[in-house]
Write a structure and sequence with these properties.
Number of helices: 9
Largest sheet: 8 strands, parallel
Shape: globular
Oligomer: single chain
Amino acid sequence: MRYLDFHQHYALLAYRHTKVDDGGDPDETFEKIIIEQCKKLDMVVALNGAAVYPHDKKGMIMLDRNDKLERFFKKYPDYIIGIAYADLDYITPGHIDRFFKRGFKGIKTIWPAERYDSPKYYDIYARCAYFGMPILFHTGICYQLGVKDKAGICSYNMSPYFLEMVGVRFPDLQIVGAHLGTGEYDAACAIALCNNEANRNLHFDISSADGIREKIIAGKYIKDYIPVDRTVWGLDEPPTKYENIIKQWEDHFDDIGLDGAEKEKIFYRNACRILGIS
């Protein structure tokens, strides 16, 4: 089995009560672990430039690491795919042009000041569709809001409901909603199911913290409620957890009766299709 992790953050070492510290530079440590895991597991990682760092007791903070990520994916093109971190309220279509020219294959976004389906963002979506660059949207509840200094942000703006119209208005844009809607699992599944009968460009990843992963597994959403073709695997956890979390998903896929081809779609082929790679 090959794997393509569609949701990983650059330099994700200390996150959700997990800490990795070998005494060296944390970015270099992260890169070393990622490449080791890629080689060991026959894995490719679509790595985004939203670096997640500890902040205070309120939550986490994200830092832009697109420049470091660019150097990393150009050094290891067989293992790393670059997904640019992009704040929809501060970028322009020109930024998308530059991301594309730099070799980024898509963008990751979170914390919009307006709903994801706001016309304010349409020119950005159109530019991503033009270049064939998928967008990874955080969807659902986002507990880090207390540390984000930006007016207008709220979890409501990131509801999976608002990806429905984005998918309709931009049928050539490949869309991935993170975490199966984070708290709105039924809605995310229903939206993906409807899209599966229409534009077929809207997906959700199953990247997750322990509590979210447990809910997705307990709900047995995959295949019965969200089509396999609309489901994408991602980690969104420190890279030391790859083997353990892959094993959890493999056990769950066996439990719900997925065959080898269906597992391969979720772990690898769906992401390849979304990214336009073989």
